[in-house]
Every structure is written in structure tokens, then in C-alpha cells.
Design a protein that fits this description.
Length: 247
């Protein structure tokens, strides 16, 4: 599947520009410094003046952390998702929401995928975490329990993760980054719970995809994410070895 960049319309550009500029202004005191710095670093290929051209962004990443945007028609299966991440390919939709639905989507569009997810992938520490997360998921794709646990970790970090910077809550999860309303409510103390980042707790915590989140986990540093993957790799590998010995 290809992006078919030439099929976008002037209305698509207007929507992209509106969403981009509105959210950048909204995020200045809300998004983590790593995200804002990454967005600025990608300014030549990711900005409000032009729709994102996947080929140009992929070329840019060749000189950065080596990621590639991989076009998908919509939501994909868990195993395919992990396969792509393990190859440093991030799946993205090519369609864009309409002016009538700026703040409500049934499934992720290009603004969520590109504005929300892509910038932080040029941060070396975060890039390594997402890549190793994908490799871990691919390695244990045969185990349904582990896949459920990894989906929970993905949800509460890559999609809806918060970080503490100078004792202030800041956003790094793409689901919040790309949402005008949730980027406000997520760091509010009204109606939300902010819990310490504990892998064991996250693996046992269910989530809801159809409404604004009310529970978030807060990391202290991006390196904490990589340590979580190292912990799970050892845990799951030990379980696999123990299971093999008992057969």
C-alpha cells in the first residue's frame, strides 16, 4: 500500500494545518521536552504548512534513527504490528479526519499516527525502546497471555504515557499528544489518577479504548521504559525455559 500523496485535497491540508497548529500551541506547557525537541528537529519534513510526505520523512529518518513509516489501511492485527516494529517500521494510516470530526475518531488517522507517534522515534532512547518492544512482542507472539500483557504496556506508555519533569506532569504518549481534550485532562488532578510506573501493576491493568482515560502511569525518565523491556525479556525468557524443562 502506498500513500498516494497526489490525491490529498486543499481541505485535507486545511485540516492538517488546523490540527497541527492548534495542538502545538496547546502542548507547549504540557508535552515532554523530548517530544517538543523532536518535533522541532523534524520541522523540515513535519510542519503545519504541508501534509506529511511519507517518502520524504523516511528519507529523513535514514540520517536519524532508521525508522520507516509503513502504510496500512487501518487497524492491523497484533502480530503484524509487532512484526513491523521489530523491523523499525511504524504503521500509519493515510486518511485524514474531516473538519466536522476534528476531535472524534473511531480509529486512528494520519494526524494521530504521524503527529502523535513519529516525532519521538527520532529520540535515540525512545527509538530503542519501541524497537525492542517490537522484537519482544514478535518473539513471544505464540503466547496469548504475554501478548495481552504487552498490549497493556503499550497502552499505558506509547499511547497514554506520562512523564515527570521537574516535578510537573508532562505527556509523551501519542494518544494524548494528538488529542486536544485529553492533553488537557490527562495532567489535571480532577477525575484522573496518576500512578507510579510499576511494570507488574501495568501488566495486570485493563484499559478501555472507547473513552478518555482516567488512569495514567508516570515514568521518571525515558530510560525507565528500556529497563522495563529488559526486565520483561528476562522474565519471559525464564518462563519459556522453565516451561520447556517441564515438558
Amino acid at each position: 500500500m502506498e500513500q498516494e500523496f497526489e490525491k490529498y485535497t486543499s481541505e485535507d491540508l486545511a485540516v492538517w494545518s488546523l490540527l497541527f497548529e492548534r495542538q502545538v500551541n496547546n502542548l507547549q506547557e504540557k508535552a515532554c521536552s523530548d517530544y517538543l525537541e523532536s518535533l522541532e528537529k523534524m520541522r523540515k519534513v513535519l510542519n503545519p504548512m504541508e501534509l506529511p510526505n511519507f517518502e520524504r520523512i523516511n528519507e529523513w529518518f535514514k540520517m536519524s534513527t532508521g525508522w520507516e513509516i509503513y502504510c496500512v489501511p487501518g487497524l492491523i492485527g497484533v502480530e503484524e504490528f509487532f512484526d513491523l516494529l521489530s523491523e523499525k517500521k511504524f504503521p500509519s494510516s493515510t486518511w485524514l479526519r474531516s473538519k466536522e470530526k476534528l476531535d472524534y475518531l473511531e480509529e486512528p488517522d494520519m494526524f494521530h499516527d504521524i503527529f502523535g507517534h513519529i516525532p519521538l522515534l527520532c529520540n535515540p532512547g525512545y527509538s530503542e525502546f519501541v524497537h525492542e518492544f517490537g522484537m519482544l512482542g514478535k518473539r513471544f507472539s505464540h503466547d496469548s497471555r504475554i501478548l495481552v500483557e504487552l498490549q497493556r504496556l503499550y497502552w499505558f506508555t506509547i499511547e497514554f504515557g506520562l512523564i515527570s519533569e521537574e516535578n510537573k506532569l508532562r505527556i509523551f504518549g501519542a494518544g494524548i499528544i494528538s488529542s486536544f481534550h485529553e492533553s488537557i485532562s490527562s495532567i489535571s488532578t480532577k477525575g484522573t489518577t496518576h500512578s507510579e510506573f510499576k511494570v507488574e501493576t501495568i501488566l495486570q491493568t485493563d484499559f478501555c479504548t472507547s473513552e478518555i482515560q482516567q488512569k495514567y502511569f508516570v515514568i521518571e525518565d525515558i530510560s525507565q521504559l528500556k529497563k522495563a523491556i529488559e526486565t520483561l525479556t528476562k522474565l519471559y525468557s525464564h518462563e519459556l525455559e522453565h516451561h520447556s524443562e517441564s515438558i
